[in-house]
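Quick one: structure for this chain?
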Amino acid sequence: MMFSILSVVLFFGLLTPSQGLLESVGTIARIDKDELVSAIQNSLVGGPILQNVLGTVTSLNQGLLGSGGLLGGGGLLGYGGIVGVVGQVSGLKIEELTLPKVSLKLLPGFGVQLSLLTKVGLHGSGPLGSLLEVAAEVNVSSRVALGVSPKGTPILIVKSCNTLLGHISLLSGLLPAPLFGVVEQTLFKVLPKLLCPIVDTVLVVVNELLGAVLCLVPLGALGTVEFTLATLPIISNQYIQLDVNSLVKSAAGNVIDLPEPPKPIKMPPKEDHTSQVTVPLYLFNTVFGLLQTNGALDIDITPELVPSRVPMTTTALAALLPKALGTLAPDQPLLITLRVKEAPAFVLKTGKAFVSLPAALEVLIYHPHGTANSLFSLNLVLTLGAQLATSATKLHVSLSLDRLSAKLASSYTANFDVSPLEEWLSNVLRVAYLPKLNVNLEVGIPLPKILNVNFVNAALEIIDNSVLLTVPSRG
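Got it. Here's what it folds into:
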């Protein structure tokens, strides 16, 4: 079956990409044209777009030809000798639209040309009452401007619509040549007015896809992340760039200030047939700051949380520091409290990701049913290596302890060198603290919804001040 082309030219208010722009925004998404084609095509296949268009067209005509249609009474061509000839054809209606095939061309500095290949099927009755089936190829061109919705999302607005019919063929039934010629001329006059709703319906789908990036993503019990567009889309010859800011709010609805101004992101070149999305450093820091504020980074470590291979007794401490702690009563259980007093600092350097976590740690003699006795307090800095992985909608972080540095803050005895304790403390934190911390990190770093891109198969690269996700296009 032959197809025709419905060309929709989408005009955007375009900006010129610049390094200055990249310094002022958070997430940068470069969406390959193949991904946009796939998203539109999938919407046409899975959604009711064709049924909606067909319903709109059918409601506008109750038979293009015949006594109740455009040629009867006050119909469009209901005058003179034409009526006598076409009166033999009745009830010719649009009954089907072939599923469009989508193609797209990006026009840098101008806009987008979207092509939908389709065919219109019309059914009616012939001169002898036989079924008529007519197929019409159509070329609809629409000029569309970019506007802004009340919600602040980009929307496409139809400014003009012109329809040009291609070849019209009789698929079944008998129709004399003179009568077919009149039907053909009539369709050339009528179908343009009836098929422009296709453009409107397609634009509804495109607007939904463009606006989906603006969303509210929950952070479990911590709060939410709201993604908003920083600028209008930027168009190159291979991709559309969206610059996205993220606003983090606590569970109480309070806006969380950025730990520091966003740092520049130097985007590497995009490969063909892939899309790129960056996750900026400040989003990591903001989420970790929210975890710290909510106490999700704190822990009380009792002997029950530590396997027997890591001793949690006064005897073990006295063996490490016999001069300072040798007078302790032996075999008393210990309690370790760790409190993160400041927001952790996440670091993204090319190929590396780690977190510097400052904490106050106190070691006490543990009395399950009484008051714990403090032995000493330390100021710690934990350097935690970060392993990153993607799911469909999140970037997941898991941490491991690389090293620990400790400084004595207070002690029930005289000051002492704490370095002999560092290995023991590291072992305790690895078996008791890191598992709890990683459970709390399952909330993940949310990713914006961009054309329903699935990030499961994204290639992950750590660049300066950002994580770069590269997704193969579905197109």
